[in-house]
Amino acid sequence: MRVAIVMPPATSADPEQTLDGWPSVVLQAKALSEHADLDVMVACRTTLAPAVVQRDGVTYRFTRTDSALVREVAQWSPDVVHVHGFGFTRLNLRLGRAVHRTAAIVLQHHGETPGHRRTVLAHRIVRRSVDGYLFTGALFGQAQPFIDRRMISETATCFEVLEAASTLPSGRVSSLAPVHLAGSPAVLWVGRLIDSKDPLAAVAAFAQAVASEVPNAHLHLLATDRSLEPQVRAAISALGDLGAHVHIHDPVSASEMASWYQAADIVLSTSWREGSGYSLIEAITEGCVPVVTGIPSHRSIVGELIGTFAPGDATAAARLIGIASRTRSELVAKHANQTLTWQAVAQQLEQAYQSVVYSRG
Length: 361
Fold this sequence. Notes:
By secondary structure, the protein is an alpha/beta fold.
């Protein structure tokens, strides 16, 4: 089977640098080639001169215009065209006209929301040439907002596909400055201090967990955007002596994140919405027990490993922190190795591709 993966955003960087900055795309294409034995080409947009790059048995073609990209895809004669993102309706219309008679087209969700009326109307036109949609959390309602707005037909096929596996370096990290996180357990929260990530719920859940479940725990907030920092610090101060068990850390580089996950026992997410959950996938892969909200993508990633809690429910989150503190590391490793690898991603994609090709006859 021949698969053309389309990356629509135009890049102004050198092609090799671009691929270095797209690890999830590169690792996805590599996994499809190695684990699913598919013939893969990736079509990309660039503001520089057209270029062709070979990497790990995959051809990456950089073109300057959408029309040139569509020509490259059509000339390659794929069985499936896999478009990353929901936001490129004009390109999708061109692809539909050029290749849909001979190739199936699937769109992969990357956290987009339904958008405004014009976007909704454009998707209603595009959906005529789309054979399937890929969601992290399709089985748990991730596609429903798009179905409700009729951007996706009620009869359309939505596939459960993990958006990515970990892009962190494999193996235990050797660092000149190893990370040590206080607490037994050490609970790590990663994200922006904004309303939708609900760091105040994290502080409240932690306080209840210490009072009833894990008296020696510490909470570590690895925070980027600091919009709610005054409110978070006020909540920490209100804890009295327990506030010394809550730490706000400055953000670190992506290359350092593995060390942080390896130093933690539990990863906590209080987010109200996520398109997928890269940091959650990475944390579980590095051995953290997840305590997360029961939003569709989280439920897909966590599976049967441990329960989830409703967004904003600090009491339920505190109870899960106690359960997580008693969860064996072997169960986390087994879950990660079975469901959160690039091989697992490739298998899910191959099944989706085969399904849409078969349904076309």
